[in-house]
Amino acid sequence: MSQYEPPPPPGLGDGCTAEVACKGTPVAVEHGVVTAKDDAFHAVAASNDGVVFMGGFGSGTTEADGVPKEGNVLLTRRGPDGAISDWSGKFVPGKEGTLVTVASLAVAPAGEVAVAGYFNGTLQIGIESYASQANSRDAFLAVFDAQGALVYLKAFGDQAYQVAHAVAFDPAGNVYLGGSFAGTVDFGDKAALEASGTGDGFLVSYDRTGKLRWRVPVRGAGFQAVYALAITDDGDVVAAGLMDGESSLGPLEGELTEWKDMFLARFDAASGDVTWAQRMGGSGDQIVDAIDISPKTGEIALVGNFRGGKMDLLGKQYTNDDMHVWDMFAAFYSPTDGALLRSAAFQGPGIQAGTGVAFDPAGDVVIGCLFSQQLQLGIKLLATESGLDADACAFKLRGGTLDVVWGHDFGDAWAQGITAVDVSPKTGRPLLVGGFQSKLVGILDEPESAGGFDAFFLELSP
């Protein structure tokens, strides 16, 4: 099922430049590939010419926390005219019990598409094939040209786990891949990295042909990971992720604690050297989910969640003493040194979880989320049908003030959630993906799921 509304006239796509363009109302929805099993989109990326890619997993099952357990790649291309092409078949389906899932997508200025994720079992594109070792999860990176032909495919792993969480292109077409690994992993230079603790993070860069440029580990005694990437206007890469316990990255030397902290760091694109790095922690857990960089000011937006104590965002503190539910935050940092510029927290009964962030051309920011019970957005209160279900949600903040421009929730008495967000550079429209059970109340003709979770894509007016 597909619905499509043509882009607005020139001028209405550049953020909220007219009242009609400031509502965040649904204008197009895609129900994804419908199967009797679980399907969900986990990533979305838009090109400068209006093409949108959505990725995740399909025909699978999930763990209790929603993490994919088995299934095959779900990869969809949506043209500027709304036409849908299924690219899932570029990945050969595995046998029962196999998992191959997309975690992140990126589109290069020249149109190449990077697909990153992880697999358990066999990964195959065309005649290229990899098998994971010892039934563990291995990371992969696949790059296609604009027509869908494979440029190169890489897989990384041993008997332990390796997962790719994030991928990005710089203006020159170089690729950056971030994730986490245990055991030993070789990124292509035959000088393998060995994890120093429960798991280390990694950031690695390849040129347009797939040749390794550099690699940087995030080491520590606990678990470390790179969860999100963004590219500055001059081509440097900014990474955000997790530091658990005693850990190190460039100038950062974290002390051993029992809590999960976040880090934010800028890396020189040519060498991988750390330009600056910041660690944000407190007396509870803090997790980063997504970052983006403003095309207007260059500032960095960070969205994530916290629980179980006090969180310090480099000078601004928020408290959530409940270890069982997450609260959401949005924070904005200087691209020069990582100093905090401003922040906001979204708290209340139940769970408030931020899952995606993207700037629009005017410098305002769109946040994707899910919540249970209530979500207070300025003077607007969103509420689920009961305290046991979860709704998908999205809202826009004014970039300079963090005032709420609009906010919406979508769902019924079952579970629905946004997993990733982008904004079309061509139209300025927010692009949301996720998974849902039952019915997406509040979206056009209210799509209904066919089995467990179904994948969905949603385009909103600015």
Automatic annotation (TrEMBL):
Top-level taxon of the source organism: Bacteria
The protein, known as: Uncharacterized protein
Database matches in InterPro entries: Motility_Chemotaxis_Reg, Quinoprotein_ADH-like_sf, WD40/YVTN_repeat-like_dom_sf
